[in-house]
Amino acid sequence: MSNIKELLGKILTKVEQVGNDEDEIVFVTNEGKQYKMYHNTNCCESVTIEDVIGDLNDLIGEPICMAEEVTSHDNLCGITKEYQDNNFTWTFYKLATVKGYVTIRWYGSSNGYYSEEVDFEEVTHL
């Protein structure tokens, strides 16, 4: 598995949200490298993109100057107990260039026995 920090200093030529439910994001660099942010789903779990704040196009054409991952198991977003899952993870990816700033917010929930993590990896083909 790769780390989002691999994008630091790279210039992206394409960033797009893809997949049946648009729960994958593909990053393509000017060097021809491709990265995918996604979750490989198993039983009894759900990991989805809740929100993209900012314009993904702001990440294209300039070097990535910030690439951070922040996770939390706290109820940061005001979900009431009625809707809160037993186990959950918020994952925030913060990316920026001189053109703008983007936060990709993922929400993962499970019965406690499965992963709620987001996968980020370099891929050889999409």
Features:
single chain; 126 residues; mainly beta; 8 strands
Give me a quick take on this structure:
The protein has 126 residues and is mainly β. Helix content is 0%, strand content 48%.
Explain what you see:
The structure is a single chain. This protein is mainly beta and 126 residues long. The chain has no helices and eight strands. The model has no long low-confidence stretch (mean pLDDT 86). The strands form two sheets. Strands 1-2-3-8 form a four-stranded antiparallel β-sheet, with no helix packed on it. A four-stranded antiparallel β-sheet has the order 4-7-6-5, with no helix packed on it. The two termini are 16 Å apart. It is 0% helix and 48% strand. The chain is globular, with a radius of gyration of 15 Å. It has one domain.
Please outline the helices and strands:
Blueprint: E1 12-18, E2 24-29, E3 34-38, E4 45-53, E5 66-72, E6 87-97, E7 100-110, E8 119-123
Antiparallel strand pairs: 1-2, 2-3, 3-8, 4-7, 5-6, 6-7
Strand content: over 45%
Shape: globular
Rg value: 15 Å
| Average pLDDT, all residues | 86
Helix and strand element order: EEEEEEEE
Structural class: mainly beta
Number of discrete domains: 1
What is the number of E strands?
8
Largest sheet: 4 strands, antiparallel
